[in-house]
Amino acid sequence: MSEIMDALKKIEEVAAKSEDVAAEIEGWDRVLQFNIEGGTPFYIEVKDGKLTVHEGTHDNPDLTFETNKDTILGILTGEIDATSAYMSGDLKITGALPDAVKFRTVIEIVRDEME
Hints:
With 115 residues, the protein is α+β, with helices and mostly antiparallel strands. 49% of the residues lie in helices and 26% in strands. The protein is built from 5 helices and 5 strands. The chain has a 5-stranded mixed beta sheet with strand order 3-2-1-4-5. The radius of gyration is 13 Å and the shape is globular.
């Protein structure tokens, strides 16, 4: 399994146990597609208060992120700031930016709980 998928599975595990994540995503049903340059695409489905990770491409995502392996791994681990990556063009987002900000908040909550 790739480093990215390892990080995603850890995020999924922590999110499943986190009351703070549950509160953040309550009523927020979205599909977030990640297209990784030179890597396997994946998507995160947020539905009914649960966050699940899937390999592959979703037919109708609400939000699409396009980036390279190093950038997404850095964002997931906290080594790269998502806003800075977006501003520099290393992360391209298609869809509603408030949804991207909410996802960043979810990732930050998960990272805080992992420490």
